[in-house]
């Protein structure tokens, strides 16, 4: 009868094989991790491309991305005597005092000026 061969634990047979096996395992893990990261990046790029391709087109692509610009106002710029803000003579609130016209940026400034002057 043949006696079965005696098997020693892996680290007793070859003392250097255990760290080598651990490095092999770690290398495989890092490889799989990098493959997963690459796959996720590719899926995200594909999703973005499909989303932009399938999205409905807007008539004005710049619409809604910035605040609306106020209409240009003409006239001469004068300083509000109450708050010091510059205001156009076309849109200002006016007060005739003596022979001159005072221009105010708002109804509030006009009322403050009237109450202070009274």
Structural class: alpha+beta
- Overall shape: rod-shaped
Q: How many β-strand stretches?
A: 4
Strand content: 5-15%
Question: Rounded to an integer, what's the Rg over CA atoms?
Answer: 40 Å
Oligomer: single chain
Low-pLDDT segments: none
User: What is the mean predicted local confidence, pLDDT?
Assistant: 82
Overall helicity: 40-55%
Structural summary, described in words:
By secondary structure, the protein is α+β, with helices and mostly antiparallel strands. Among the domains are: 15-54; 77-117, no CATH class. 45% of the residues lie in helices and 14% in strands. The strands form two sheets. Strands 1-2 form a two-stranded antiparallel ribbon.
């Amino acid at each position: 009868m043949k006696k079965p061969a005696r098997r020693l634990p892996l680290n007793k047979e070859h003392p250097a094989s255990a760290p080598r096996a651990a490095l092999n395992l770690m290398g495989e893990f890092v490889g799989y991790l990098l493959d997963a990261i690459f796959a996720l990046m590719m899926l995200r790029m594909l999703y973005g491309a499909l989303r932009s391709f399938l999205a409905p087109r807007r008539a004005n692509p710049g619409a809604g991305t910035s605040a609306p610009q106020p209409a240009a106002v003409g006239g001469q710029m004068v300083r509000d005597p109450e708050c010091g803000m510059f205001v156009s003579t076309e849109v200002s609130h006016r007060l005739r005092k003596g022979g001159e016209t005072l221009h105010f940026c708002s109804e509030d400034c006009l009322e403050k000026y009237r109450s202070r002057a009274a």
